[in-house]
Amino acid sequence: MLSVMLKMTRQQYETDPQVILENMFVAVMDNIFLLVLVTLLSVVQNVFFALKVEKECTGQHSKSHSPAFERLSCANRNCMDTYSTFLAVLWCAGICLSQAPAAFAGIIYLVVRQKYFVGYLGQTCQSTPGFLFGKRILFFLSLMCAVGIINHLMLSFGGSDYKEYIQIITKAASTLLLLP
Amino acid sequence: MLSVMLKMTRQQYETDPQVILENMFVAVMDNIFLLVLVTLLSVVQNVFFALKVEKECTGQHSKSHSPAFERLSCANRNCMDTYSTFLAVLWCAGICLSQAPAAFAGIIYLVVRQKYFVGYLGQTCQSTPGFLFGKRILFFLSLMCAVGIINHLMLSFGGSDYKEYIQIITKAASTLLLLP
Amino acid sequence: MLSVMLKMTRQQYETDPQVILENMFVAVMDNIFLLVLVTLLSVVQNVFFALKVEKECTGQHSKSHSPAFERLSCANRNCMDTYSTFLAVLWCAGICLSQAPAAFAGIIYLVVRQKYFVGYLGQTCQSTPGFLFGKRILFFLSLMCAVGIINHLMLSFGGSDYKEYIQIITKAASTLLLLP
């Protein structure tokens, strides 16, 4: 955002559409690059999970369906099942309201997922360590989404814009996710 | 769109890049907030499904793989498998062509999915109630996508813009999805 | 991009915000329509896979869990598990850096996936033909993402913009994906 501001003051009197379009793309990137970073990290984690499962699978040629493989495969599937939900909510929250708290919550989610995958030691599929992990983070991101939409509707119909206040509150609230 | 128009007339002679950028973000939100709403609803539904499966799983400690659990888990997996496809097609259709019919189709899809999940009473996995539900809605959204791209290409190379007519036709066509 | 340029020169001296907003939407579409096209193709492929599984499932009423069905279902599940990852990385790479190489890599990924699904003839789930296919393409897209973010940060803090050079290099590098 800072870089756009600087550009703005520099090009205060240039109203060439070309320049405006270029600034637009920089502004868009400014508003999503943290989300892209978190998405990239989550993709790296996904690949790590998949390689882990593959290694376990090819490690023992005799019988492929050992309990360890079953558990790894199950943990991987649970992670993948909620992955699209997580991505959708992360991006919506980041675009509608503010990207920094959304990206922060996303990183915490990745840490929780890592813990979940490593610590998946239950006897049966989806038993002890919980089937749906990171509920609190998903709830926080959904709430951000909803608040963003409500704020947009208020801005459209009422004309009052509380976005700045809401963003400050959201940033403060996102630190609460660090509580165990 | 209305709010942007109003702002436009108000700021007709302000060509400050800062103002233009701010208007840009409001205009972007205007064009996606219905999609965000549908995405949010689908996330709530996903969490509902996952909690349902989890409850069934932890409800009976003796033997975890009862037929009821198997069926719930299978229905949940089928829903999750098509979820990313649905999201991708919903957003592409909404961005390329028009958000209102896309969001409407999305809501109908959610209703169909709810019915599918509740009514999943077949004997074997993916048998009676259909493996791929909501084919018609996915087809409608894909068609919207394709029409949007063709219109964009015609606008780029031919210079003729039929977007307004297409949007009216799409809105009318989306009501046909209500037919059983 | 060409169409925007043309429009730009035509409307060089029109600084009406309405016109700028309209140009903005055309410019956005110009930057994503190839990605939308690849997404649409991937959705068509997904539906093809799902119909294939459904046909195999309903084809034999006597016993639903034949080895052929198991294998098809497993191949479908592996494809779906990596689908959200693929979509996320494709769109991030396309938006952050350049859409043409990203879309090209996406099409190659779809071809690889088709080959994977058709050739899935291993004895056990996730055995011979690899559990995670298209690793090279996912790596290439992730790299594009990372380079795009680094370039944006350098532009924000350093002021130097190497995007043009990077895009040329990326386009050249994307042809290397054609190597078997």
Computed Rg of chain A: 21 Å
In N-to-C order, the SSE pattern of chain A is: HHHHHH
**How would you describe the shape of chain A?**
elongated
Span from first to last CA of chain A? 32 Å
Number of strands of chain A: 0
SS summary, helix count of chain A: 6
- Percentage of residues assigned to helices of chain A: over 70%
Largest interface: A-C, 39 and 41 residues
Strand content of chain A: under 5%
Instruction: Outline the low-pLDDT stretches of chain A.
Output: 1-14
Describe this structure in words.
Chains A, B, C: One of its GO terms (cellular component) is endoplasmic reticulum membrane. Chains A, B, C: It is a multi-pass membrane protein. Chains A, B, C: The chain crosses the membrane at residues 32-51, 86-112, 137-157. The structure is a homotrimer of 180-residue chains. With 180 residues, chain A is mainly α. Chain A has helices at residues 2-10, 17-59, 67-96, 99-118, 135-157, 163-174. The model of chain A is unreliable at 1-14 (pLDDT under 50).
Record the SSE blueprint.
Three copies of one chain form a homotrimer.
Chain A: H1 2-10, H2 17-59, H3 67-96, H4 99-118, H5 135-157, H6 163-174
Keywords (chains A, B, C): Endoplasmic reticulum, Leukotriene biosynthesis, Membrane, Nucleus, Transmembrane, Transmembrane helix
Subcellular location (chains A, B, C): Endoplasmic reticulum membrane; Nucleus membrane
Membrane topology (chains A, B, C): Multi-pass membrane protein
